[in-house]
Amino acid sequence: xxxxxxxxxxxxxxxxxxxxxxxxxxxxxxxxxxxxxxxxxxxxxxxxxxxxxxxxxxxxxxxxxxxxxxxxxxxxxxxxxxxxxxxxxxxxxxxxxxxxxxxxxxxxxxxxxxxxxxxxxxxxxxxxxxxxxxxxxxxxxxxxxxxxxxxxxxxxxxxxxxxxxxxxxxxxxxxxxxxxxxxxxxxxxxxxxxxxxxxxxxxxxxxxxxxxxxx
Length: 215
What we know:
This protein is of the alpha/beta class. 43% of the residues lie in helices and 17% in strands. It has helices at residues 11-14, 22-37, 56-68, 101-116, 132-135, 148-165, 173-176, 193-209, and strands at residues 2-9, 43-50, 76-82, 90-91, 96-97, 121-125, 144-145, 168-170.
């Protein structure tokens, strides 16, 4: 099997604040190990296209161009996407999220429809809850706050859209909230090494159990 794994999203996709490069870097390590072990009978290349601060508006603007540059005829493409927490970012003057729920839902559908042009293997990864004591307001953006009320709402919208569009969804929020999740966060919003390990293990298991990638 020959293919490409394209990771799109925000800082959670990019692996910020994890010394090992985040959940996607951990996944790439496992993929690369199998490529080497099988002497390239199994051959996937993995590209991390996460950009810190991205919301669905920004991702939609770059998605197809960046995807097309990394898709090759005759090779399978797997899309892994995590996006939404910056859409849910609350403006402390208006008390409204940066991207409305209606626009967010519409953007997700547009991104999925673009991805469907190139692959049937499309998986969204849910977002992390936040520690509001550290990010309400946000120290590096005092005009805005992250609030779990909105983070969870946008996570649920993503789940709903994925069900409607028949694409995969990996639940992170509802699983990690059951734990003392604050210890898995570096600064109240970004995962630390433990947080990214949690996401990696959850994503890896989903991909294997649903026959997305045989790793």
